[in-house]
Amino acid sequence: MTIRYLLKSRPLFNINYRFLILFIITFPLFSSVAGQNIRVGLYRESEIRTIIFKVLEGFYTLTNQDSLKIEMKASDILFVTSVGNRISLWNTEKHLGIHSKIQITSKNPQHKMMLDPVYPTLPARNYYGNFDIWTDSTSRVTLVNIVSFQEYLAGVVEAESGVRSMPEYYKAQAIICRTYALNHIDRHQTEGFHLCDEVHCQVYKGFGIEHGPILKAVDDTKGLVIVDNQGMLITAAFHSNSGGYTANSEDVWSTTVPYLRGKPDIYYDKQRNSNWEKSVSIDEWVEFLKTMNIQTSGKNDYSFSQSKRQRFALIDNQPVLLGDIRNAFKLKSTFFSFENKGNKIVFKGKGYGHGVGLSQESAMEMARQGESYSSIIEYFYTDVKIIDLYETTYLMSLLPE
């Protein structure tokens, strides 16, 4: 059983608090998340075959499950290459053997390591923490970063939000990312880690040069999560820009969630992704309609308009999911109108992303205008509360006499 299972299956505001509090205080996973380590699978969308580890700062120790033990200092380099179901190791001086699994660890969590994929060639990233490395059944190198939960969250906020926003926005995003992580903490349990580093979980690319202010926002909100009116962790969905109106969850994912309600967003405008336009040829459009089994009159008279988010467009009185149109033509959102002009279909749209939950660009604008992180969260999620998992006195105050 994990915290996610407990919180989802047993509301925080249920009368059985003594069991809940005891479980949270004593359960090892909560201890890990509270201030120790989380295991994150790296480069999960890529089939890594060869990668370079370079020590940026401090000292690390390379070990395996047998007797291998090699000290690594700043500027030392290790080449890791898959060989069947094992990994071959080289440093700049010699071959270090072939192994089934290795660990790269440091006693100081602030020591830094650079990972630079060679095959395939991908951008290098910098990480804190330790590493477990092995190959899977496809000869892919599996890389797991073992890092403090706080550092992980800071990395997620940085990757999802950029580095040029206000502290209150970073606090809001940190709470959202913490809530999401706890709610999905066992998503990759069978693969040897908690969460991956891609959009399947949350984007995580280690740390960048502006890491400090974001880490402070994570620390300032330590333990804070978002729960619904039943006391359960929410699915803290977010996107780039709402286009002026957020979406109902069921219009995107077919599941009605009470706290993910579409509502006006007055902060969306004059942002990077507020408005957009794209054209496709009539031939591409007609071919798409054929794949959707849409029978057309052949008059090439196509138009559709939405002032408030909808789910379908009617084309010759036949419904077509806006999500299918978006995916087919790689549009920024489903919040668009279109018409044919000559031999083209012209899309004029608003926003970027699925539109459910928090709009990041609007949240940033709210922070610039002086709104607090709690106001930002409550603006986008309906009937939710922000609670502190460490503040057991809060739970104790709700216990029956």
Description:
There is one protein chain. The protein contains 12 helices and 23 strands. It has helices spanning 3-9, 17-26, 28-35, 149-161, 167-183, 211-220, 250-253, 282-291, 322-329, 360-368, 373-380, 392-396, and strands at 37-41, 50-57, 60-64, 69-72, 77-83, 86-90, 95-99, 101-105, 112-119, 125-128, 130-135, 141-148, 195-196, 224-227, 238-239, 275-281, 303-304, 312-315, 318-321, 336-341, 344-350, 358-359, 385-388. The strands form 6 sheets. It has a 7-stranded mixed β-sheet. A 6-stranded antiparallel β-sheet has the order 7-6-5-2-9-10, with no helix packed on it. The chain is globular. The relative contact order is 0.14.
Write the layout of secondary structure elements.
Layout: H1 3-9, H2 17-26, H3 28-35, E1 37-41, E2 50-57, E3 60-64, E4 69-72, E5 77-83, E6 86-90, E7 95-99, E8 101-105, E9 112-119, E10 125-128, E11 130-135, E12 141-148, H4 149-161, H5 167-183, E13 195-196, H6 211-220, E14 224-227, E15 238-239, H7 250-253, E16 275-281, H8 282-291, E17 303-304, E18 312-315, E19 318-321, H9 322-329, E20 336-341, E21 344-350, E22 358-359, H10 360-368, H11 373-380, E23 385-388, H12 392-396
